[in-house]
Description:
Blueprint lengths: L64 E4 L15 E6 L18 E7 L13 E5 L3 H12 L6 E5 L4 H9 L3 E4 L5 H12 L2 E4 L1 H12 L4 H9 L4 H10 L5 H8 L3 H15 L4 H9 L8
Parallel strand pairs: 2-3, 2-4, 4-5, 5-6
Antiparallel strand pairs: 1-7
Helix pairs in contact: 2-4, 6-8, 7-8
Amino acid sequence: MRSPRHVRTSKHGSAQHSSSQHGSAQHSSSQHGSAQHSSSQHGSAQHSSSQHGSAQHGSAQHGSSEYGLSQPVGSASATPSRGLSVALACAQGAWPHHDWPAPDDPYVRRVLHLTPPYRGLQDSGADVVVLRCEDPSVSFAELLKAMGDMSAPVIVVTPRRDSEAVVEAFRGGAGYLVEGDYCTCMLSSAVMAATVGHTYLSPTACAALRDAAQGMPGNGQATEQLRALLSPRERQIMELLSTGLGAQEIGLRLTLSEKTVRNNLSNIYAKLDVRGSTEAVLRWLGATSAVRV
């Protein structure tokens, strides 16, 4: 599988997540409609952000989360005003939401259905790719191969909820929605969030990510030593970042300017020896070793 998703990497580390701890992990960023939330939030992931619809971030009540990764190349042109184009990659008849997107969907304008091996994907002009599959460990790698140099962000929709599958997809830069754990409004919000660099995780996926961190041998002590490298303010910022809040939302919570938050994030990345928010969150949660993912 490719390195942390060519598609997003660390520019913003900061902006990433929004929300604050909602068991559901939503993430941040204004991007999510209902599920909007707030970003990434892992673990319980809760995020909160306030700006997202239901899953919205803001609320800490949304179980989903989004992590802010760097924006995918070319994503800036995908604006809600014109509507987004989504490539739906799944086996024939396997898509569970035949009523999506709704005619009045605020974000998604067009959906192009593609079956394996996803011929024509690179020429589809899709802003986001939604992969519906039974086994992400196999299908995600196949999709990345079919995408080639395509820079569109990916959201995985699957019944699998184990930590291994979630961590692998998250490390690859993909959002992760567990079937039965989200609604179509959240799906649209996750799509919108992806275009501005956020990785959305549904509540169950967030919980799986935290479980993976807690289950690592010697994780507790190693994680505490890592966190000790950060100042009290930096630890506050990382705690909010890991729940899905983005730089703007973190600033509002801590009464700091967005620029100050981003400067702090740059220092945090240097101290943790990571390239961006995804790696930083994984390290913070103890879901990865000291080596770069």
